[in-house]
């Protein structure tokens, strides 16, 4: 998944291309580049491995002329390791056409060998380089015609920006399977991978659809289908704002976002649980439809998938409806069984995850109504869904999801209570108690945050271990998986989340004095079972960090370290244990000198499959 930007207009393109590109760095940051046409329509390209600041440094040492037309790109490598030469834009051999690409060209090897036989010299190891080479091979003076012929040969996914020496003042864009928007300005027009990248310049956007090409000049935008048919363009006016995220004194966005969670949840509850009334505006489904729901199907990736797994326990316990949870990448290819009584939930912080978008489209093709639980307003998933439940957690910059995760959890509790209400599966007293406890959660978060230094000390005392096992039971089995993901993705320490009851079926072989085991064991109906697992680990010299209910004196006898969380009904405990798990991962990663906000090999939004 990469970020692309394009500009054509009266202003100097370079600062616009760079400033907009920085807002797309969440999509990939292993290398970046800019390409543009100077006043003599000479094509100039500058690219650099590493973050955009490296590109800026390069440009500072090699100043660039004023230019009206340009493209820029920030990369997450799919084919070809991060390097200057593999960075985008890519050009043809004659250096007359430049292209930036987000997606995967699945038939690039075949195309590459065809072009090489015709004498094309490839410089990079990327799939994307075949695109400018193909355009050049078809080019007979009509750039749009050459782009059309090229697109007809491509298999896979792409969002493209194309400029050419022979066509100053022209920028061509096209998309299949990767997001791309056109921004409409005054004597200037833009393309970008998402709306926030160009919100500083315009609020008028066209959401390009799969199979569409846009030809932009400074005063015109013309849309057509790949086959050449004209397409009417509908211009939307973006109403939301995106405040530029700032660290506000925190060393990393992740730590700031961990601290934001009590306020995020408080705001969510004030919006959706008013005077003991549930308000799920955006759900778009009547109580009658909810009452007839026979199955809930959840698809998501990564942390969002873990939220879905917790959601399974919550919905099944409170609303007594069976819930299936699947990773989006598996769901989309397993020819799933869906009927009109299936409530289909697609969970995605970014709303741009390729596999989750594809899974939602697959579900809709099978007749399901798609409800999205999403954080980014106006994202692709939010726009395509039949109903949208925004978590409104605010922009999440840290690649490791924290506040978006706990907001997703909270949304599942509220949705489960809504389903329980329409199906009368809870007594009024049970409902009232749960409302009361949910409203307490933000203050309980603040209590746990007060224990941050103790958690930091425990994290640092265990940061030397080369392998972690996270164990939990029942509703905290997904918490164990989420804790393992948090740790591995920012500290690069191998970590595995497991159902504790499965430990003796294999993972116990891992236990020795060189491993750390995080045991999630708040008071619950499986507390004794989990305590036995902890004894079994202790008997094999495993180093145990326990997450337990405040005041639990028993747990101290079977753990090396104990992190306490306030007592709550057990079904609500995933909301609380998420916080120490996030902090453990954060402080271990910091202790190890890792780039917590932008870990290696990752991106905030996985827009390729
Ligand atoms: C979470 O910490 C990870 N960054 C990753 O697993 C993420 O949850 C996953 O890529 C799904 O992203 P989405 O919620 O934007 O769809």
N- and C-termini, Cα separation? 9 Å
What is the molecular shape? Answer: globular
Please tell me how large the radius of gyration is. 26 Å
Main sheet: strand order? 3-2-4-1-10-9-11-14
Which blocks of ≥5 consecutive residues have pLDDT under 50? none
Question: How are the SSEs placed, and which strands pair?
Answer:
Blueprint: E1 3-9, H1 13-22, E2 31-38, E3 43-49, H2 52-61, E4 67-75, E5 90-91, E6 97-105, H3 108-117, H4 130-138, H5 143-153, E7 156-164, E8 171-176, E9 181-184, E10 188-192, E11 204-207, E12 212-216, E13 221-225, E14 236-237, H6 253-272, E15 273-274, E16 277-278, H7 287-291, E17 295-300, H8 302-319, E18 323-327, H9 328-331, E19 342-348, H10 354-365, E20 369-374, H11 380-384, E21 387-390, H12 403-423, H13 428-449, H14 452-461, E22 468-472, H15 477-491, E23 495-499, E24 516-520, H16 527-538, E25 543-549, E26 561-565, H17 573-591
Parallel strand pairs: 17-18, 17-19, 19-20, 20-21, 22-23, 22-24, 24-25, 25-26
Antiparallel strand pairs: 1-4, 1-10, 2-3, 2-4, 5-6, 6-7, 7-8, 8-12, 9-10, 9-11, 11-14, 12-13, 15-16
Helix pairs in contact: 3-4, 4-5, 6-12, 6-13, 8-12, 8-15, 13-17, 14-17, 15-17
The structure holds 2-deoxy-2-amino glucitol-6-phosphate (AGP).
2-deoxy-2-amino glucitol-6-phosphate binds at residues 301-304, 348-350, 353, 356, 399-401, 489, 605-606.
